[in-house]
Write a structure and sequence with these properties.
By secondary structure, this protein is of the alpha+beta class. It has three helices and 22 strands. Strands 8, 9, 12, 13, 18, 19, 20 and 22 form an eight-stranded antiparallel beta sheet that branches. This is Cytokine receptor-like factor 3.
Length: 424
């Protein structure tokens, strides 16, 4: 029965996606025809306006010439009639009219007329239309659009983080060469997807995720040398059960974002370590190879802006809060300085990471290793395996604590303003 239901569900998925694809194709080509029709109409109007303008511009001199000739002919005809009348009158009247006729005739240049342009000099309008555009458009239309049985890229994994979800995707079409990827997400209660990432990476952490809320994620790709995006992947639903990290509010010298996950050092008068509001607990992870459950802790910092560095600056984690300390370069803490130096229980390691710059991401991955005893049997030493990564480099070491620890605080300290750090 289970297999039958699964088969019915798969058939329903095929029918639904086929129906959606038909609707998308019909709507797209309908919009395309409407747009092309408007563009052709606009181009026709433009060309007709050019014809009208050339016609008016070239006809005006000929119209002016014709008017001037007609005016000269009419003037000559009037003068001839006046001469005829003068001849027919009496002697005194005839002399007066002949004198007036002679005076007018002397001011009229009957043999001076404007030159009419030669026929070869008169503009002759025509339209130049390249019929090859039809073949070009035809070729583009025949190649426009594709139908695929599945999108070339799919979401591979969703990993919950405090206040975020890491989304990983991969190509499922070996013949498709991806140039860029585009990731979108939305709350399941929303009808609108938002762009959160466009780039060449195949992994991205989506922040500002509310805990215990379902989100949908989808990704598409752009082929090498192409402008259009591929079809979207099948949407995947993910959520995070982990409470977002928060800095302690009200600490002098630092201001926090509305979600309290970003801290800005804004005052150089005060000093001290800004700690997390609450401890972050280890989570269980089963190691398939070793066939055992491991307790793990992971934390990421992203430096948004930088200020003047100082050798006492620190970004890291600790087993407990200690008031009165101006840095995490102390016992029961591990940290990285802004110059890249790594400190374990207050001692600087030989290995060093690159200096922290704007946009740097510092990752702390911690897992339990062993629980041993001291030589005098007065207590236990708790060992943690720590990996600190920054700018594509990492250091790995064992961190000894005085007692068993199921949670850690995160913290930072900067001695000059301008440093802004996001924790997730």
């Amino acid at each position: 029965m289970g297999i039958g239901r699964r088969g019915q569900g798969q058939k329903g998925k095929i029918k639904e996606s086929a129906s959606q694809t038909r609707n998308v194709l019909k709507q797209h080509f309908s919009d395309l025809k409407e747009t092309l029709g408007k563009l052709l109409d606009e181009r026709l109007v433009t060309l007709l306006q050019e014809v009208d303008a050339i016609e008016q511009e070239t006809m005006k001199p000929l119209d002016d010439c014709q008017k001037l000739i007609e005016h000269g002919v009419n003037t000559a005809e009037d003068l001839v009639r006046e001469g005829e009348i003068a001849i027919l009158g009496g002697i005194e009247e005839q002399n007066e009219k002949l004198w007036s006729f002679t005076k007018k005739a002397s001011h009229i240049q009957l043999d001076s007329l404007p030159e009419v342009p030669l026929l070869v000099d008169v503009p002759c309008l025509s339209a130049q239309l390249d019929d090859s555009v039809l073949n070009i458009v035809k070729d583009h239309i025949f190649k426009h659009g594709t139908v695929a049985s599945r999108p070339p890229v799919q979401i591979e994994e969703l990993i919950e983080k405090p206040g975020g979800i890491i989304v990983r995707w991969c190509k499922v079409d070996d013949d498709f060469t991806a140039q860029d990827y585009r990731l979108q997400f939305r709350k399941c209660t929303s009808n609108h997807f938002e762009d959160v990432y466009v780039g060449s990476e195949t992994e991205f952490i989506v922040l500002h995720i509310d805990p215990n809320v379902d989100y949908q994620f989808r990704v598409c790709a752009r082929g090498d040398g192409r402008q259009e995006w591929s079809p979207w992947s099948v949407p995947q639903i993910g959520h995070s059960t982990l409470v977002p990290h928060e800095w302690t509010a009200g600490f002098e010298g630092y201001s926090l974002s509305s979600r309290r996950n970003i801290a800005l050092r804004n005052d150089s008068e005060s000093s001290g370590v800004l700690y997390s509001r609450a401890p972050t607990y280890f989570s269980a992870r089963y190691n398939v190879i070793l066939r055992k459950c491991e307790m793990t802790f992971d934390l990421m910092y992203r430096v948004e802006t930088v200020g003047q560095p100082d050798r006492r600056d620190s970004i890291g984690v600790c087993a407990e809060k200690q008031s009165g300390c101006d840095s995490l370069q102390r016992d029961q803490a591990v940290c990285i300085c802004t110059n890249g130096a790594v400190f374990v229980n207050g001692k600087e390691m030989t290995n060093q990471l690159p200096a922290v710059t704007s946009g740097s991401t510092v990752t702390f991955d911690i897992e339990t290793v062993t629980l041993g005893t001291t030589n005098n049997n007065e207590g236990g030493n708790f060992k943690l395996r720590v990996t600190i990564s920054s700018n594509n480099r990492e250091v790995v070491f064992d961190w000894l604590l005085d007692q068993s620890c199921g949670s850690l605080y995160f913290g930072c300290s900067f001695f000059y303003p301008g440093w802004k750090v996001l924790v997730f």
